[in-house]
Amino acid sequence: MKTCPNCQRRALSLITDLAAGKRYCYRCIPNPMNCLGAVFVARKMEELHLAGKLETYSVEQRLKDLKDPPRGFAGGGDKLSELCRRRDGSFRAHFHTRAKAEAFAADPQNHPVYLGDIAHHCAKCGFWHLSRFEWLFSEWNESNALIS
Ligand SMILES: [Zn+2]
Ligand SMILES: [Zn+2]
Question: Is the pLDDT of residue 30 over 70?
Fold first, then answer.
């Protein structure tokens, strides 16, 4: 076991947040939405390790979960909710507040994808997403067919 440099709790594995250059355990990582796969795998490995069954979790399965964590897993310890995915099946960016979403869109590092995107609260998953204005408009049209 290792000691998490952030919360000082014991953890089987630590997750490095490349953007922040810091290491966290799956329990205290501030933005689990940004790396759900890593959070999921770290948590599952620790649960299996404590149960003495870590060897039942194959490397192939770990890699698969890392890329595509099971649907419904929201990370951050015990919080479970259905998260929105893109059409290709990957998770959309999720933010807890409008300010966080807007700060992300304003960061030049994220400009190739998110520049000019609009932060909006999602009624489906309860988080904030960033969307192209055109997408928002078409979603809005589809779900509000009576409004012209
Ligand atoms: Zn921690
Ligand atoms: Zn959503």
Answer: yes
Spacing, Cα 132 to ligand 1 middle (Å): 35
Report CA 92 to chain centroid distance, whole Å.
8
Shared domain for 44 and 74, answered yes or no, is yes
Residue 127 lies in domain: 92-148
**pTM of the entire structure?**
0.51
- In this structure, what token pair is assigned to residue 43? 């948590």
Ligand number, closest to the Cα atom of 93? 2
The sign of the CA dihedral 66, 70, 71, 74 is negative
The answer to whether position 87 is within a domain reads: no
Distance 58 CA to ligand 2 centre (A): 31
Length of the chain counted residue by residue: 148
What tens digit of pLDDT does each residue of 105-127 get? 888 888 878 888 888 888 778 88
From the CA atom positions of the chain, what is the Rg in Å? 18
**Last residue of a domain, which of 53, 78, 103?**
78
Do 11 and 67 fall into the same domain? yes
Half-sphere exposure of residue 140: CA atoms within 13 angstroms, side-chain side: 11
Ligand sitting nearest the alpha carbon of 17: 1
